[in-house]
Write a structure and sequence with these properties.
7-stranded parallel beta sheet, alpha/beta, 4-stranded mixed beta sheet, globular, about 190 residues
Length: about 190
């Protein structure tokens, strides 16, 4: 069974007792007045596809724990059935980027990761390779993810640092697809 919400705002999505749910898709989210959608995951043993988690527009609650930057993983904050995770991240927004390790740690068995880079006018500051190394080991990157799709790549410093960290740590990675954002005009830009 699949549940999809597109181009909508929903205050709360509760997946408390959904033994047959396999896919939960909430994409192209809009949030009035800075509100965010709370996604609460309880008992969903077949949930294998989840997306698009968006740190700006979603609050993730797993096992009665609100997942924040730096949340320690525990058996109650893990959703082991998810193997495909899609995220929308504005790498230029520090708080968005800081949520990536926390989100990924909740889904240790992800083997396909899809990231869509969101647009932003903000500066992330010092989200360099050191930031990612300090975030520590992310088990699914190290031992599970074999496919990374990175969409709307703008070539920003924070995006490049994340990709470098990912490539250094992904031991079972087989395929990477990087799709450039509109606006890349030459191969020189791509190579740089």
């Amino acid at each position: 069974m699949c549940v999809q919400f597109f181009s909508s705002f929903i205050e709360e999505i509760f997946v408390l007792d959904a033994p047959r749910l396999e896919q939960l898709v909430h994409s192209h989210v809009w949030a009035p007045d800075g509100n965010r959608t709370k996604i609460k995951i309880g008992h969903a043993p077949k949930l294998n596809w989840l997306g698009y988690l968006d740190p700006e527009n979603h609050v993730l609650d797993v096992g009665n724990t609100i997942i924040k930057a730096g949340t320690r993983v525990s058996p109650s904050t893990i959703v082991p059935s998810v193997t495909f995770l899609a995220m929308e991240v504005r790498f230029g927004v520090r708080n968005d980027a800081k949520m990536i390790p926390s989100f990924l740690r909740c889904f240790p068995n992800v083997d396909r990761l899809y990231i869509r880079c969101g647009k932003t006018d903000q500066s992330a500051g010092k989200l360099n390779l050191k930031f990612w190394h300090e975030s520590g080991i992310i088990e699914c990157i190290r031992s599970r993810i074999n496919l990374l799709v990175f969409r709307d790549f703008h070539g920003g410093r924070s995006e490049l640092a994340f990709l470098k960290f990912f490539f250094e740590n992904a031991l079972v990675l087989k395929e990477v697809v990087v799709m450039l954002a509109p606006g890349f005009t030459s191969m020189e830009e791509v190579h740089s």
